[in-house]
Specification:
Keywords: Actin-binding, Kelch repeat, Repeat, Ubl conjugation pathway. With 650 residues, the protein is an alpha+beta fold. It has 19 helices and 38 strands.
């Protein structure tokens, strides 16, 4: 248990030594001017990188100081090795042999031929490398994505993914999904597959749907989220897909039919399918004679299908099947839903001196926060069955927290002065907490995010002090691997992902053992495997909230060593600029932050005097804050996340 007076502010374990913001006075500087110290300015020229790149591009386009020529077809493209190697791991390995046990022949060649890349595409990519400008269209986005993946230019690949996400529709979502999956663009693949599931009735009408591989179609048919009129439509969809290439796809008929609930298929559609040419062809291919065809469809499609057909037709149709013996079998109805609704979850933290492991949630149809989560929500407001959310296995304050569609991850934290290394995740589908492999060290005040659907934990405070280390979770082996460390040590900072990049925002720390409040921001590029500093925020802040909405990153509230903050600012990665937005109505720090239905929610925390249970929400489109339902419990240092549950339209 933490003392109330200690816990009411920010983290007790982080004693704060506030340093004055730049310009700073260096008392150890030169003692000129009669023994008086000199002012030391830490200055950064934000225009200089642009001047540098403009100069390099001028040299390239003028053919000056170019030491390599890239050849595609009959065209030659002069460039500088050092520039190409700086942005592309592919070129870096080619020119320097980095990451390999030997040198490539190209490292000593002045002319290098690149196969399978169109000359015009390569020319535009080189222009992008030197100017950061490119024009993406429907006609060239596919070529750019392939080339960016091949050359490992992550920033261009991210731009292509953004473009495809903005242009996604029923006619192209399948192609986008397959392309994204083949190039390890996991976030885009997840978005495209979800779009296909939510618009399935329209997707199956498109020509692109017929190109789905068997394994992908089987996965879609097995999904509970599927916008369809019923199982009868799915049976017709299977028939349509198989008939597109019957000689190749008939072998998959049984496996695909097993993914639908044939007991819910209307009798007329069952009868039509049983008598269809596709089933007769499959039976003939299985070696049955014409006399055996009426008796052996169960061999091809399984006993459950045969029993369902006999039972349904005997009940609904005046057919020879009505004379057959009724098969009484146990059957569990398959429940599907066309849409999903988000649920906000607040968990852990400290309240009245006690460290918590409890959870509470809020969603559509609730008149307040509750400790039970619905199995589904309805637009009509009709109550649905609920289930009590189990507490976390470990009490935690200041844990790292992030979420995927149906899962909340909680990592580390502190309880009773003891650092926690354990990790666990909550599955909303099974309504249980499940343990993950522990971190290599106990840590609190760290941040977590899921760039490209991979769980990462960044910074925090351990027994050794403020960390700059980072870790990634390897799901296949249930263990944590080290990532390259940040440039600065950070604790109580914000962490989020945007366009497959990992961002560390503000916090408390510095280059070495410093403990100053930071306005600096850095992002991790997995392709380059290094942290890159970006534009700093307008205001230093720790204990803040950081989230991503659309193509922007938002930093909210916090504490700057002097006062609790109301301010909010937005980062645009395309311009590398922060913009101040409307501040919150109440200054707060150590709160939970999440996004629900496109709105940013700040939950609980403290205002410097009281622990809070109040909630505010921000609409990015209108730049306005609104009050929301308060939690049941006041919480400091809590985690907040958003998960999805079925939405019923009745």
């Amino acid at each position: 248990m933490l003392g109330y007076e200690q816990g009411i502010r920010n983290c007790n374990a982080c004693s704060l030594s506030v340093q004055q913001a730049n310009p700073s006075f260096d008392s150890s500087g030169d003692q000129d001017n009669g023994g008086q110290g000199t002012d030391v300015w830490d200055f950064r020229d934000a225009v200089f990188p642009t001047v540098l790149m403009d100069g390099l591009n001028y040299l390239r386009t003028s053919g000056l100081l170019c030491d390599v020529i890239l050849i595609t077809g009959n065209d030659e493209h002069p460039a500088q090795r050092v520039v190409l190697a700086a942005v592309s791991p592919y070129f870096r390995a080619m020119f320097s042999g980095t990451g390999t046990s030997h040198e490539f022949l190209e490292s000593k060649q002045n002319k290098i031929t690149l196969h399978d890349i169109d000359s015009a595409i390569l020319g535009q990519i080189l222009n992008f490398i030197y100017t950061a400008e490119i024009q993406i269209t429907e006609n060239n986005v596919g070529d750019f994505l392939v080339a960016a993946d091949f050359l490992q230019i992550n920033s261009l690949q991210n731009l292509c993914c953004q473009y495809l996400r903005s242009q996604m529709n029923a006619s192209n979502c399948v192609g986008i999904y397959l392309s994204a999956k083949s190039r390890n663009c996991r976030e885009l693949a997840v978005n495209a597959k979800r779009y296909a599931l939510e618009h399935f009735r329209h997707v199956v009408q498109e020509e692109e749907f017929l190109q789905l591989p068997f394994s992908e179609l089987k996965g879609i048919l097995g999904s509970h989220l599927l916008n369809t009129t019923g199982e009868g439509e799915l049976l017709e969809t299977i028939t349509k897909w198989v008939e597109h290439k019957p000689s190749e796809r008939s072998q998959f008929l049984q496996s695909l039919v097993s993914e639908i609930d044939v007991w819910q298929v209307p009798a007329e559609k069952l009868l039509s399918f049983v008598n269809s040419e596709i089933l007769l062809r499959r039976l003939r291919d299985s070696g049955f004679t014409s006399e055996q065809l009426q008796l052996n469809d169960a061999v091809v499609l399984g006993g459950d299908f045969k029993m369902a057909v006999d039972k349904i037709l005997s009940q609904r149709c005046d057919s020879p099947c009505s004379k057959a013996q009724s098969h009484q079998v146990a059957h569990s109805k398959k429940i599907r839903h066309s849409y999903e609704q988000e649920v906000i979850v607040a968990l852990g933290g400290e309240s009245s001196g006690f460290v918590l492991n409890s959870m509470e949630c809020y969603t559509l149809g609730y008149d307040g926060w509750r400790c039970s989560i619905p199995t589904a929500v309805a637009l009509s407001g009709i109550p649905n069955p609920t289930q009590v959310m189990p507490p976390m296995r470990t009490q935690r304050i200041f844990p790292a927290c992030c979420s995927a569609d149906y899962t909340i991850f909680v990592i580390g934290g502190i309880c009773g002065g003891k650092l926690i290394d354990s990790c666990e995740f909550y599955s909303v589908q099974s309504n249980e907490w499940i343990s993950l492999a522990s971190l290599p060290i106990g840590i609190h005040g760290s941040g977590a995010a899921l760039p490209n659907q991979v769980l990462c934990v960044i910074g925090g405070r351990s027994d050794q002090g403020i960390e700059k280390r980072a870790w990634v979770y390897e799901e296949r082996f249930n263990l944590w691997e080290a990532l390259p460390p940040m440039q600065l040590h950070r604790v109580h900072h914000g962490v989020t992902s945007l366009n497959c990049l990992l961002y560390a925002v503000g916090g408390l720390g510095g280059k070495h053992t410093d403990e100053q409040f930071l306005s600096s921001v850095e992002c991790y590029d997995p392709a380059l495997q290094r942290w890159i500093p970006i534009a700093p925020m307008h205001e230093a802040r720790a204990y803040c909230g950081v989230v991503t909405v659309g193509s922007f990153l938002y930093a909210i509230g916090g504490f700057n060593g002097i006062s609790w903050l109301r301010s909010m600012e937005r980062y645009n990665p395309l311009t590398n600029q922060w913009t101040l937005l409307t501040p919150m109505s109440v200054a707060r720090s150590s709160f939970g932050t999440t996004v629900w239905n496109g709105r940013i929610y700040v939950i609980g925390g403290c205002d410097g005097i009281h622990l809070l249970n109040t909630v505010e929400k921000f609409n990015p489109r209108t730049n306005r804050w609104h009050c929301a339902q308060a939690m049941q419990v006041r919480r400091l240092g809590l985690g907040a996340a958003t998960v999805k549950i079925p939405l019923k339209m009745e």
